[in-house]
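Just wondering, does anyone understand what follows?

——
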Amino acid sequence: MSGGVGATAANPRPTTEGDTLALRRFVWGWLLLTALCCLFVHQRARIDRAPPPPEGAAPWAMAALEAARIGATLPEPPAEVASYRGRGPVIALAWWKGRVQARHVGGADFAGSVRAAAKRFASDENLGRLQALSTSSADGLRYSITVARGQGPLLGSIPLLSSLSLVPLVEGVSAELDGRRAHLTPDEILAAGLYDAAVRTPIPDLSFGADQKALAAILARELAVDTDLLLERGSLRRFAATTLLREPYPREQKLDRAALERAAREGAEFLLRHQESNGRYTYVYGGQQGSALPRGYNMPRHAGTTYFLAQAHRLLDMPEAREGARRALRWVRDEAGARCGGPELWCVRQRAIADIGAAALTALAASEVLTTGADAAIAEQLQGLNAFIRSMQREDGELMHVYDLRARKPIDVQKMYYSGEAAYALLLSQRVAPDARDLETAKRLMGHLTGGAWGFFGSRYFYGEEHWTCQAAASAAPHMDVDEALAFCMRWLDFQRVLQYRPGQTPWPVAGAIGVGPVILPRITAVASRVEAGAQIYRVARDRGLPVGELRRQLEATLSLLLRMRWSPGPVHVLADPAAALGGFPATQASLEVRNDFVQHAGSAMLLWAEILREEEQQGR
């Protein structure tokens, strides 16, 4: 068609003043509606909290409970403790090996409720029998006092909001049915594994929220009724809580070299304690169960854990850690070793495939072991693994990440982390087994990772998981021009700093972690790996005279977080065996599971920074 006066693709109708006014009205209307919705949710969900218990409340309460247990006179509470009242019940729990054995629900009067709980627990025959079974005070009864400081509704009608309406570790749940009440404290929810468990996401290891039906099921058992009946006829509410313990967790610790080395040593000892005689590690340790949990094994994480143990030997003089690493490498060779493309090409199989990640981290561990002493078998293993990595390189410098053992050919796919791990492994091996072929492969790979592979519109404002890449960049400095790689890694660390929590930004003591909002607990491993890379980049940047003050503060904030969150001794009242759990690192503050790579990343981060502090002490900086 031709002619006419209507708008066409070539001649769009010009924007009029009326169009602009309509757009403005729409935007302002949308903003007003959003603000009203936020105000409604805030007013509906907010809890008017009473002040927290005074500072002397926990020591007095624990002393009173212990005095009653041994038949002594209860101490008198300090005046400020005697006069304190919450806005709900004071709930005293007696724990043994991570499980509640007795409970007392008092009123709002803190001192009176604790006295009543002490009397009740002292007369409980089961508690007396359990205490008699304890071989030491370390594995005896433990107590928690939960103070309800205010109540609010539990949003249950909107699917996603219902899962997010409970703040982990800060809020508990109460139920009422026919005038009877039951309460579930934050620590009981933690012990049941119900925080961060309701909504599974496509992102590995990321879930969040609490399943209200699962919470209701526990409360229904307390009330001796059916769960559906409670949900139909009863009511659920949430309450803001403060929990008092003899050994608070998490707790502030001084950040210095001694603290970092002690924490790393305890982490290495945790891994060795949970390593089998053949060299295989406990992949996931359940603190609530006091034993290994049934999970599929992961070969790259096995190798990364081995790398950390070898680091611990080099930097902490732990011969037992080196032996553990050697056992772990033998296990890989005997149980998962394969040839991928030729007799000289060693790889690590998982069923019918072998991947670059397992090969690279195993090579990394082998290099670290060889740094502190010769071992012919491990040297041969390293040589074969590096040859396999070289064989998987493409023309553009990138690697193919998977080898099909049945088809006997590589598969050109790429997975997160693997190329950075491979570059780091090839570069680190130069310390113990210099090979020009490995160095050339690493140069081409680094050019791809920090050059052309990350050049697109917006590449300065978005970054992936680059902690292995940046460890490789730091290791590359003695061998090649790393100006471009160093600039890339400094930008990446700047990006992480934007995401880093400051004090008071979340309901939890997680300053130094990274996240995108106050709803989901931050993952400890994610931020530990940033310090692994950041510590090494810091050294290179500092030695080149670049400004590193902000980076140092960023890294030290994270290291302080790691010291707070490690199990030393941790939330001992909900752990089945605190001695066995000592040195572990959970995924979050609301988790009672320790995967071996959680310890590896945190331990390596602390060792690398402790090494920098040692150098600075020696140089008088």
Remarks:
- Confidence is low (pLDDT under 50) at residues 1-12.
- The two ends are 80 Å apart (CA to CA).
- The chain has 22 helices and 16 strands.
- The first strand starts at residue 90 and ends at 96.
